[in-house]
Specification:
With about 160 residues, the protein is an alpha/beta fold. The chain has 5 helices and 6 strands; from the N terminus they run ααβαβββαββα.
Length: about 160
Amino acid sequence: MDYPTMTLAEIEAMPVADMADKDAHLYLWTINRYVEQAYSVARAWGFRPVCLLTWAKTPRGLGLGGAFVQTTEHVLFARRGTLKALRREPSTWWNWTRPEAGTGPKHSRKPEDFQTLVEAVSPGPRLELFARRARPDWTVWGNEVEANDQIEARL
């Protein structure tokens, strides 16, 4: 990879369980190769996996993948406690536009529409780990964005 990565054990050991409210939602991005590990991470962080959301990307020819070109990414939605959703969504998949601008590797950029969906479904406060950009009313942490000092000290 052309950016730093962490092992599964390092990710699972992050103190998310200590930082999250007792009633909270988790949205954990993953790719096909790591879907099984995403469930493990959610549980290690004190969350109960609920459903897998899918970003179905319009194909752009033969890109990454083996027998099948990878045109989907997934978000494991998990719960902790009894936080109620702000609204009910009629789908578990979306065909959001791929982000063309921004920092970091092009293949792993996430659509702004995803964060808009989170804001519509889940009450705040909101924390994004491994963030690439700031977003109003979100606390962010990551090596590509200026992190909130309180979060940086805890991670």
